[in-house]
Task: inverse folding
């Protein structure tokens, strides 16, 4: 019967097996390579004296932009403000996110509903979230200003006052991003094997002990991934701060990207702006290398569970 | 948990209530505000009892704002349209570029594929201004400044890594032998990709598309730096809207509500995939 | 269509799976690839199918070199071990896929799918998706997909592995008929020696990155090349005893528990060497103590296995021996019994290399005369 077999039809056009993956990924690569060019341009800018207002004075000054930072109090202010912001937001979000995840750990209908509702802030554009909180803290009609006055804080000016500006933007960040940590930790908590907990419950091990010795260690990969992810984004935060105060009052909130933005567009100092961003890039690059390691471990695990 | 005491139950209840209050109240309050006139908004003490009005929404949608100072043109709807267009087009381009690449990375595995995939991933974490600032200068030189094309291109920075890494995971989950079987049956790699790999990875592709849309919609910094007023999405437009004189607060609130509504709706629709998407495929929900 | 593999080498990263492997399968022949898991059987099928490429060596199908020929152009039917059904298509579409690739008309496709599914008794579940099918139906669907286009080469990768014992038994009876009706060149991979013995013209035993022995089922059963191959076939497995053949007046013999057990004259060359004696359980008989070459044993246990009864006995030196006899034959009266080895059933292996000691043909012929 093999003589009656139908021959496979032959094809004229074909991409060779070796070339195929390159052909498939090439368009995506090209788009991204085109984006790498500005990155290298930024490196070059950071090594130049370059002001948009004085194009004629543009020249290479090599490390001068960086060297100047050492004696530049406004740079140290930027570094300090950025780090303060990152530590405060990530710290508070981690504690709060873990707490909420523990509260919602049991798979009940109510808990699932709440956890989905809590995603809403996270899905709100950070810039718009800032706008919402700006309305809420408006001295004229803001509900939070009213509450502040109600508890005796007359004329509490939130983001407009130097003392409370940081607190206000941190609050917005916490509002937006705590659900991110919460949802990752919740998924983590719910994926943990149950045996150790059942065994501990049978042996009557106290709950705080179970938490410190079983829950937390097993949750560590999720905690690390969530923390690093947030740290990388937080140290680069721009949307919330810019939308809220544009870095003010004064230089109270001039984090890296806001300072770089203002340097570029207001003082037109391209060189300094680029140098600031390079320093930020180094920080985030180191963080993201650590992050990717953690993230890959989790990813392997998630893939293995299928 | 049969050991839970009444006290603990009460404490849990209080804690959950506080959590819900903190995270839900701002949205609730903004929605209320969007149905109020300036008079009721400015009332002291604030009250949740008022005569709701839809005039704020009407004003935004018709583009005409009647104020005491007279009538004012607003183009909030064009911002909304820009958001919709930029996000959809970016996701479409991202899918066209990203899905084949995800297949190459996930299934074919070639020399250097991991390095390239990680380089693409690292774009996700680089400070956006680092690329954007030189790009403003380039875009001006090559005529891409303030064009949809230029914006959509730059949006790939957030859209592509997301699509690539989520969809890749879905391709990896398809047993290789299913595709092998289709090839041996006599089909070219392309029809195997189209008839087997794509349909089987479709849930992942849809999830990645929805998430990428949300992230593109919520983006602020790209358009702030690269777009002028007529190309701006709502995130940037709404901000300018507040500072415009004579604006009524109810309309700002209505604008915010209209701007966050699409992403919230999509998120609720796609919530099953959110965890996976937010962690770029590292955690399953 | 014939299959010729020459000097194939295949490795994955540092792990060499196949080394210098050559194999020829004639047109219309059914060859079983048999061997333990990890011996490279599946890889060999994938190489032939074109799903993976060899590092070295050539693959020729019907005399044509397959280098650079894509799997879809090789005209092969293949059934995968895990079925590899397309989960988003129903059974009909699964079976029809090779015909669609060949641009058959809708009418012809329906006709052929109908024929094949009737043959395989799955015509009533054609509209079911794979996840609605039982394992047996999945397996038949996968088989149907491999057969439907009547390919001249069929590669079946352990198709009965993931089905239950009852179905495996039925299919083992059915498959030879099915395969012979196809008239195709078949390579069939299995880990089950009974399946191997039942199906094929020749068996290729794989081990150590290559083919250890190739021959008819009888050849491999009766004259295995090495101890390892001898162990792979037969249930219960072959008895292996360390012996050193000695020269006697009536020819060579070995000592078992003091008794002189004669072996074939052809084994003269093995005299004085360290050997392993291999004897299949069914080549051992219970006899009276007075019989020539009778070896005294103590019976430890008896296990009836349907058509045969297997006895575990130990010799005076505490070596275990399995004896198999037809269930209808009565066993020994007491636990102290005597056995003899049928001289034709005795195999000798070199203890160092594990290779079987060949009998010398001249003397073997003389013995027969």
Result:
């Amino acid at each position: 019967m093999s003589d009656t077999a139908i021959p496979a039809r032959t094809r004229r056009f074909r991409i060779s097996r070796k070339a195929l993956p390159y052909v498939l990924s090439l368009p995506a690569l090209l788009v991204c390579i085109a984006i790498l060019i500005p990155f290298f341009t930024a490196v070059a800018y950071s090594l130049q004296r370059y002001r948009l207002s004085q194009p004629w004075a543009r020249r290479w000054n090599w490390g001068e932009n960086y060297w100047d930072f050492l004696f530049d109090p406004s740079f140290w202010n930027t570094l300090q403000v950025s780090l303060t912001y990152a530590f405060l937001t990530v710290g508070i979000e981690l504690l709060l996110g873990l707490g909420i995840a523990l509260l919602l750990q049991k798979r009940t209908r109510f808990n699932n509903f709440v956890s989905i509702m809590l995603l809403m802030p996270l899905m709100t554009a950070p810039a718009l979230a800032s706008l919402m909180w700006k309305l809420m803290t408006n001295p004229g009609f803001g509900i939070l200003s009213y509450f502040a006055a109600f508890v005796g804080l007359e004329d509490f000016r939130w983001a407009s006052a130097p003392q409370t500006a940081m607190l206000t933007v941190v609050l917005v960040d916490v509002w937006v991003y705590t659900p991110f940590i919460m949802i990752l930790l919740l998924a983590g908590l719910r994926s943990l094997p149950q045996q150790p907990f059942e065994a501990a419950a049978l042996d009557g091990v106290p709950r705080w002990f179970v938490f410190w010795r079983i829950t937390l260690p097993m949750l560590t990969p999720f905690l690390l991934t969530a923390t690093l992810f947030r740290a990388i984004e937080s140290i680069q935060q721009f949307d919330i701060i810019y939308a809220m105060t544009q870095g003010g009052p004064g230089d109270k909130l001039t984090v890296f990207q806001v300072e770089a933005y203002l340097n570029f567009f207001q003082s037109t100092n391209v060189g300094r702006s680029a140098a600031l961003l390079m320093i930020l890039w180094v920080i985030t690059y180191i963080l993201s290398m650590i992050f990717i390691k953690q993230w890959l471990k989790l990813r392997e695990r998630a893939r293995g569970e299928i | 948990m049969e050991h839970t005491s009444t006290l603990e139950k009460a404490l849990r209840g209080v804690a959950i209530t506080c959590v819900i209050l903190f995270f839900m109240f701002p949205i609730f309050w903004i929605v209320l505000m969007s149905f109020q006139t300036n008079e009721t908004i400015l009332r002291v003490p604030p009250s949740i009892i008022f005569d709701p009005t839809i005039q704020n929404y009407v004003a935004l949608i018709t583009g005409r704002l009647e104020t005491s100072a007279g009538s004012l043109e607003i183009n909030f709807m064009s911002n909304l349209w820009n958001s919709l267009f930029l996000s959809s087009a970016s996701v479409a381009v991202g899918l066209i570029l990203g899905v084949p690449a995800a297949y190459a990375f996930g299934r074919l595995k070639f020399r250097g594929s991991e390095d390239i995939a990680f380089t693409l991933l690292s774009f996700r974490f680089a400070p956006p201004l680092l690329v954007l600032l030189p790009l403003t200068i380039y875009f001006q030189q090559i005529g891409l400044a303030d064009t949809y094309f230029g914006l959509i291109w730059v949006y790939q920075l957030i859209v592509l890594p997301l699509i690539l890494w989520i969809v890749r995971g879905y391709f990896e989950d398809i047993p290789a032998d299913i595709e092998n079987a289709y090839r041996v049956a006599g089909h070219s790699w392309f029809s195997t990709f189209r008839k087997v790999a794509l349909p089987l990875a479709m849930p992942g592709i849809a999830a990645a598309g929805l998430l990428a849309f949300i992230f593109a919609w919520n983006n602020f910094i790209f358009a702030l730096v690269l777009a002028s007023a007529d190309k701006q999405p709502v995130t940037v437009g709404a901000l300018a809207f507040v500072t415009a004189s004579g604006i009524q607060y109810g309309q700002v609130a209505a604008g915010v509500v209209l701007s966050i509504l699409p992403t919230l709706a999509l998120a609720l629709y796609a919530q099953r995939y959110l965890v996976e998407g937010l962690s770029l495929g590292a955690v399953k929900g | 269509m014939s299959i010729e593999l020459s000097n194939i080498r295949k490795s994955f990263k540092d792990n060499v799976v196949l080394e210098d492997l050559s194999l020829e399968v004639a047109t219309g022949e059914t060859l079983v690839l048999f061997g333990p898991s990890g011996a490279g059987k599946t890889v060999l099928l994938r190489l032939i199918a074109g799903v993976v490429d060899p590092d070295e060596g050539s693959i020729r199908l019907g005399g044509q070199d397959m280098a650079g020929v894509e799997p879809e152009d090789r005209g092969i039917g293949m059934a995968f071990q895990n079925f590899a059904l397309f989960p988003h298509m129903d059974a009909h579409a699964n079976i029809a896929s090779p015909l669609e690739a060949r641009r058959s008309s809708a009418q012809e496709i329906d006709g052929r799918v109908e024929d094949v599914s009737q043959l395989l008794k799955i015509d009533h579940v054609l509209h079911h998706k794979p996840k609605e099918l039982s394992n047996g139906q999945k397996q038949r669907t996968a088989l149907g997909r491999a057969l439907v286009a009547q390919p001249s080469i069929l590669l079946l990768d352990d198709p009965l592995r993931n089905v239950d014992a009852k179905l495996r038994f039925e299919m083992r009876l059915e498959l030879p008929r099915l395969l012979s009706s196809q008239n195709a060149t078949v390579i069939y991979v299995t880990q089950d020696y009974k399946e191997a013995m039942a199906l094929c013209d020749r068996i290729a035993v794989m081990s150590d990155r290559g083919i250890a022995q190739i021959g008819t089922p009888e050849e491999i059963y009766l004259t295995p090349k090495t101890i390892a191959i001898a162990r792979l076939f037969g249930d219960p497995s072959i008895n292996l005893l360390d012996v050193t053949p000695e020269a006697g007046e009536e020819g060579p013999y070995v000592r078992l528990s003091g008794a002189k057990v004669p072996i074939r004259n052809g084994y003269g060359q093995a005299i004085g060497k360290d050997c392993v004696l291999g004897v299949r359980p069914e080549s051992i008989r219970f006899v009276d103590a007075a019989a020539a070459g009778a070896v005294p044993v103590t019976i430890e246990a008896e296990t009836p296995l349907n058509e045969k009864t297997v006895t575990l006995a130990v010799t005076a030196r505490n070596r275990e021996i399995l004896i198999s006899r037809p269930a209808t034959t009565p066993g020994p009266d007491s636990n102290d019994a005597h056995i003899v080895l049928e001289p034709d059933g005795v195999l000798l292996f070199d203890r160092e290399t594990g290779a079987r000691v060949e009998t010398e043909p001249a003397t073997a012929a003389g013995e027969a005369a």
